[in-house]
Amino acid sequence: xxxxxxxxxxxxxxxxxxxxxxxxxxxxxxxxxxxxxxxxxxxxxxxxxxxxxxxxxxxxxxxxxxxxxxxxxxxxxxxxxxxxxxxxxxxxxxxxxxxxxxxxxxxxxxxxxxxxxxxxxxxxxxxxxxxxxxxxxxxxxxxxxxxxxxxxxxxxxxxxxxxxxxxxxxxxxxxxxxxxxxxxxxxxxxxxxxxxxxxxxxxxxxxxxxxxxxxxxxxxxxxxxxxxxxxxxxxxxxxxxxxxxxxxxxxxxxxxxx
Length: 258
Hints:
single chain, 76% helix, 258 residues, 2 domains, mainly alpha
């Protein structure tokens, strides 16, 4: 999938998830505070502003309002039935999480104390509801495509990139792509480059956790800068976040290098 297609898929998924959130708020409101037909008419009667003394005008307006409120009540009931069914299609744990968030108004961060994966699980629940809701423009094919995209990100993660970088470094030691790689190494910020060189040449037998952070950043930067490795700026940013404090400043510095 090309970059533009991925961008469009991400936007489509984001819009679908926001629509599900909006629908769940409406669903919870209708379930907790139902308005029947008489309530709707009473609300209409109390708010009616007289704009004409013609009795037939008011009679017509009231009839139109009655028909409109009957239609609204029918739509609300159908909407409730639909989301009753959609939520029943989720695994019990996920439907329970949605109930806690939208009916009991629990914060997701509080639920996280029980389940560290709650953010991932709740987003997957939103996504599945979007697929099941025929009124939302997000199909099971879209979901499958996004799953494949996520899997490709995992396959291009830190460990995979490290192996690819070290493969090129081994070739470099034997004279393969030497000029190319020398140019890339020179572009890596000095502290990370020195730690990476020591690691490559096995000049140190002991590394602190801070050294390992710099080594990992050096490896990621090499992958980002080297044209023979498929590792774009989004991959670089995602993996760099995992290296801890100061990653943003380092990221901006490397963006300027490239």
